[in-house]
Fold this sequence. Notes:
Low-confidence stretches: none
Keywords: Monooxygenase, Oxidoreductase
Number of helices: 3
Protein name: Antibiotic biosynthesis monooxygenase
Structural class: alpha+beta
Distance between the termini: 11 Å
Order of helices and strands: EHEEHHE
Pfam families: ABM
GO molecular function, one term: monooxygenase activity
InterPro entries: ABM_dom, AI-2_Isomerase_LsrG, Dimeric_a/b-barrel
Amino acid sequence: xxxxxxxxxxxxxxxxxxxxxxxxxxxxxxxxxxxxxxxxxxxxxxxxxxxxxxxxxxxxxxxxxxxxxxxxxxxxxxxxxxxxxxxxxxxxxxxx
Length: 96
């Protein structure tokens, strides 16, 4: 069953520009994962420090493979998460 993720990041203001520069490569690498169906990143118009990630994977195993990937470990875990004020991850089952 497909797994959808809606992830919200609120970046520390001093880190926003640096983190935005990391996202293009993250998107490219993630979209090339075998189990990835969709990977889009959005920036709030009202608060540029708020980022929404919309991710879709073929199944739960593909989600775990993404989290274990070298690019996720290096970019997200090491370079992004330490500079977030808020990180919310919602894993959803697609119904329709």
